[in-house]
Amino acid sequence: MDTDKPVAAPPLAWFSLGNLVIGTGAFILAGILGSISKDLGVSIPAVGQAMTAYALSTAVLAPLLLVLTGKLKRKQAMALALAFFALGNWICALATDLPMLLAGRVLMGAGAMFTPIVAGLAVAGTPPAQRGRALSLVFLGISLSYVVGLPMGTWLTAMQSWRLPIQVVAAASLLMLAILMWRVPSSLQSPGASFRGAGALVRQASIGLPLLLTLLYITAIFTLFGYIGPVLQALGPMSVAQVSFTLLAVGVSGVAGTLIGGWATDRFGPLRTLKAQLVIFALAQAIFPLTSGNYPAVVVVLLVWGTAGFGMMPPQQTRLAAASPPNAPLLLSLNASMLYFGTALGSIVGGAASAYLGFGQIAWAGMPFLVLGFITLLMQQAKN
Predict the structure, then answer these.
(1) Which residues touch 368 (CB under 8 Å, ≥6 apart)?
(2) Which of 45, 270, 323, 384 is 20 to 30 Å apart from 152, CA to CA?
């Protein structure tokens, strides 16, 4: 198969909408940890491990299921993924204790294989010169989940219960399944994923270093973002409206960053784009705890932080797809695994750091990971 020729025009907008549902379900807990903690009678760091359970499940189960479903049509695999995701959300919404909540999050993680499936289809159906923008459109849904999902979760929880926004995500997952069954052609395919030769691929610097960078910068993001609700309250008491607006601002910055990242990747190349993004992101994360007591500064720094941080996904995906186009689905799935391992590690680091630094300063716990991430870019540049 010639991977430089598009096999079909993938419905990128629908893929993005599906990722909006996935992203909303994945990260909606970040803004409502306090409410869940009170209802289930456990600590906020303990509830934060629901993020860890989802992340580890996605990192392990999504690549495995991607390979096991390799002989299915991609439309069938997407349907299976969304069914898993919907069921996991319903279990979470009905949870009466922490183990039940964690079990639902694990099942949701299995359903998150939807994201690498549609990313692989985007790569297979798009000419190389346009892949940065195509991937940015697919992942725009993840960024939009911060605009829509997090403020919605906070608002619905304040209006009724933390269970309501999770029920909404479950219903949206089923609706998305129906839409994709209607709109996605059965003929749409991408190269099948296989673990054969995966070890040799990962040992290549052009693949191993980008995967390591994803792990490191996502860890830094989620030392802060995994506890964003308590962090915002620690920087200065906020009303529900202020918290919702702040999360909306982060989401808008993520959308802008995703679009800018895709454009810059096609214009300047992924490596140059990533170096600029990582420097800006690190500066914003270092400054963020210093905004305590100054709400406008909190919002401005978070806007810069979100634009740079969440904008790194398109150049990262493009680097991996270019490194081995025939293996793009597996590499994109492994990148998603690194993303969720980073989410899990960031949640663990943030939870531990909160006991020593307090929620207002846990952003600093992510700085060593960003330094290491920049070193991987320098190593990649030296090898090029």
Answers:
(1) none
(2) 45
Q: What mean pLDDT comes out for the span 38-57?
A: 85
Averaged pLDDT for residues 173-183 = 89
Alpha carbon distance 378, 280 (integer Å)? 16
Given a contact cutoff of 8 angstroms between Cβ atoms, the answer to whether 14 and 137 are in contact is no
Q: Are 15 and 141 in contact (CB under 8 A)?
A: yes
Query: Per the structure block, which two tokens stand in for 359?
Result: 């929620």
pLDDT of residue 1: 39
All structural domains of the chain: 12-185+204-378 (1.20.1250.20)
Rounded Cα distance between 316 and 380, Å, is 13
Q: Which amino acid, residue 369?
A: F
Residue with tokens 């200065």: 236
The whole-angstrom distance between residue 95's C-alpha and the CA centroid of its chain comes to 24
Q: How many residues does the chain have?
A: 384
Residue 95, amino acid: A
**Upper half-sphere CA count for residue 92 (Cβ side, 13 Å):** 34
Q: How far apart are CA 131 and CA 39, in angstroms?
A: 45
pLDDT digits (tens, 9 = 90+) for 97-117: 999 999 999 999 999 889 888
Answer yes or no: is pLDDT of 208 > 80: yes
DSSP letter for each residue of 76-144:
HHHHHHHHHHHHHHHHHHT-SSHHHHHHHHHHHHHHTTHHHHHHHHHHHTS-GGGHHHHHHHHHHHHHH
Give the model confidence (pLDDT) of 2-20 as tens digits.
444 444 456 788 888 899 9
DSSP 298-313: HHHHHHHHHHHHHTTH
Other CB atoms within 10 Å distance of the CB of residue 267: 11
What DSSP designation does 191 have?
A: P
Cα–Cα dist 70/189, whole Å? 10
| DSSP label of 69 | T
Q: Which amino acid is at 270?
A: P
Query: At which residue do the structure tokens 């398109």 appear?
Result: 314
